[in-house]
Structures are given as C-alpha cells and as structure tokens.
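Design job #97: recover the sequence.
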C-alpha cells in the first residue's frame, strides 16, 4: 500500500505522538509498503531515511494565515505520492486530509492520542478513527463518533526502531532506594504530586532519592517547589533523555502520576524494563497495566496515596518482586509489530470501503 503519515514535526524530544508515528512508519516500510511522512521535519528524518521511509517537508499550523501554503503543499504531496491511505496523527493534519482536496481518492485514518484536548473531536473526521486505548474509544464515542468507525490499537514500544536493540550502559549510576519518573515536566503529568509524595515519603525513608527524567514548560516551577518542600539534594532533574532505559533498568519504583494519560508509551517501556510500577487510575493507565495486575494504581492528585504505594513497594520485598514479575508478563501485546499489524488491517478495511468493527 501507499501510506502517508501526517504529523506536525519529526523532532526527537520525547513527544509520544511523534514517537508512535515514527515506529509505525518504520515498521510499515519494513513490511514492504511505500511509506511517506509529511511534517516540518526534525531529528527523526535520518532514521526514517535509513528505514526506507520518505520524508517530505509539509509545515502544519492551525494559524489561518498559513492555510494557503499548507493546502498547496498538501495537494503537491497527494499528487506526488498518490496514496491509498492518509494517516493523520494531529488535528491540523486531520483537517488537511479530510478537506484539503476536492476529489479524494484515498481513505483517511486518524489516531486519537490526546483525547482530553478539546480539539480531539476533530479527529472524528477520519473514515476510521483509531483510539490508543479502549478508554479513549469510549470517550470518542461519547463525543459523537459512530461506534462503527471506531477501532482500538493499543500503543506499544517493544522492538522500537528508534532505539538500539541493546540499552546503553547504566550511566549515570543511580542512588538507592530510588523513585524514577520519565515524563514531560508539565502540570498534566502530575510532577507536583510526585514531589509532594516524595516529601511525605522522606519522613519515613530519608535515604530515598527521586529522579525526574524529562523536560518541559513547567520545569522551573517544579524545581522551585522541590526547594520549598526541602531536601532538594535528593531530587534530580535530569532533563530530556532520548533513551531512558538506563534509568528504568535501575529504578526501584517507577511512577507515572499523570492527571490525564490516554495511553502512555512510557508504561510499555517501564514494563519491558521490569519495573515495579505505580500509576494513577486515569484514562488508559489501567489498560496499559492489565487492569492493575501489572502495577499499583492510585487516585490522581493524591500525594498521600502515591506516597503510600511507593512506600509499600520500597519496603515490602515480596510485593516489590511480585510486581516486577507481573510487569514483565504478557508483553507480546506491547510489541511494535503487533501495533503495525493492527493498523495495516484497518487500512485494508477502509481502503476497500468496508466499515470496520471494533
């Protein structure tokens, strides 16, 4: 098949939407399909080229003044690629794919990554709308997307072409006992809750250390909060890491405290690393953790519950070992090959004009 993926950019900045799109494009090219990514570009262009995926520059923006240039660029893209499928991963790309040409000879597939955004309803313009978890599918159905056009393909990262098969050496060496999170430094990710939970935990375990792996717009505010809460020397803001596996491999407890999290790739990465996991019971987190079998689930925005769950895993060796083992179970469903097959099946259905069923 001839497949075009639309995304805002291809930057190596830890953006889960882009990471998933790059994985999918590369795996589809490996499967023998003709794959093109159209975006404003970025560091993933080298990988895409190496995997046989063509990249075409198509800057996308919701600004109206950019519309004429976007439409012209999109129409050139369609004329050049003559795709069977245009797969849009973000709102602007969805509108371009659906309305950018008068005579459409391709099917439009959209993936809803961040359904908590108001603009997510626009992803419903796809001929098939793919949710990254069942929780997202249910949300999109409530927003009016017919069930017949909804499918679910859960995210996965195992076997990703973005990372070398073997993880990098464990550097730097982490202090123990430790808590690790890999997340953007934004309010949505619950970083303030982790900091407050850590302050509570240190009353019982003053030797504990916290590693916050990631960067983002609220990092300075979180660093200030860390100082206010005390013991900033035990809290490490590492910045963005393109390959966080050395941190995951050394984590005593991995935490994802998001307030909203449709289908976080990092939970797949943490499970592959065999982490003992604590996550908030929101959106797709329970599905990514087998309903709570593969990790402890706590309410969002509740630092005390978070501290209690982390403390349990750090102090109860049997429980810690059990959750590490459970994290490693049933991992075949998190392989990028399974994700690729799921989308190719959907492409075949919509390409032949069939109504997909979930």
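Job complete. Output follows.
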């Amino acid at each position: 098949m001839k497949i075009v993926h639309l995304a805002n950019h291809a930057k190596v900045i830890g953006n889960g939407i882009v990471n998933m799109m790059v994985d999918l494009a590369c795996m589809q090219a490996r499967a023998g399909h003709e794959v093109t990514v159209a975006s404003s570009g970025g560091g993933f262009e080298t990988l895409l080229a190496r995997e046989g995926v063509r990249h075409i520059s198509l800057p996308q923006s919701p600004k109206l003044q950019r519309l004429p240039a976007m439409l012209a660029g999109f129409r050139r893209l369609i004329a050049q690629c003559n795709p069977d499928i245009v797969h849009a991963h973000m709102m602007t790309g969805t509108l371009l794919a659906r309305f950018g040409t008068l005579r459409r000879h391709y099917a439009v597939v959209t993936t809803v990554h961040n359904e908590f955004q108001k603009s997510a309803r626009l992803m419903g313009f796809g001929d098939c709308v793919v949710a990254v978890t069942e929780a997202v599918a249910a949300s999109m159905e409530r927003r009016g997307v017919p069930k017949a056009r909804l499918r679910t393909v859960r995210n996965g990262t195992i076997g990703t072409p973005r990372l070398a098969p073997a993880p990098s050496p464990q550097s730097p060496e982490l202090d123990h006992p430790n808590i690790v999170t890999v997340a953007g430094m934004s309010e949505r990710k619950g970083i303030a809750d982790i900091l407050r939970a850590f302050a509570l935990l240190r009353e019982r375990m003053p030797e504990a250390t916290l590693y916050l792996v990631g960067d983002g717009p609220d990092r300075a505010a979180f660093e200030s909060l860390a100082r206010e809460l005390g013991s900033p020397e035990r809290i490490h803001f590492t910045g963005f890491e393109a390959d966080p596996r050395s941190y995951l491999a050394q984590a005593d407890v991995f935490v994802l405290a998001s307030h909203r999290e449709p289908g976080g790739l990092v939970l797949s990465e943490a499970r592959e690393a065999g982490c003992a996991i604590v996550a908030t019971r929101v959106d797709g987190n329970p599905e990514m953790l087998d309903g709570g079998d593969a990790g402890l689930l706590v309410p969002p925005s509740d630092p005390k519950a978070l501290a209690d769950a982390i403390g349990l895993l750090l102090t109860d060796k049997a429980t810690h070992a059990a959750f590490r083992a459970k994290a490693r179970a049933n991992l075949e469903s998190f392989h990028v090959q399974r994700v690729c097959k799921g989308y190719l099946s959907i492409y075949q259905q919509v390409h032949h004009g069939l109504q997909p069923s979930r």
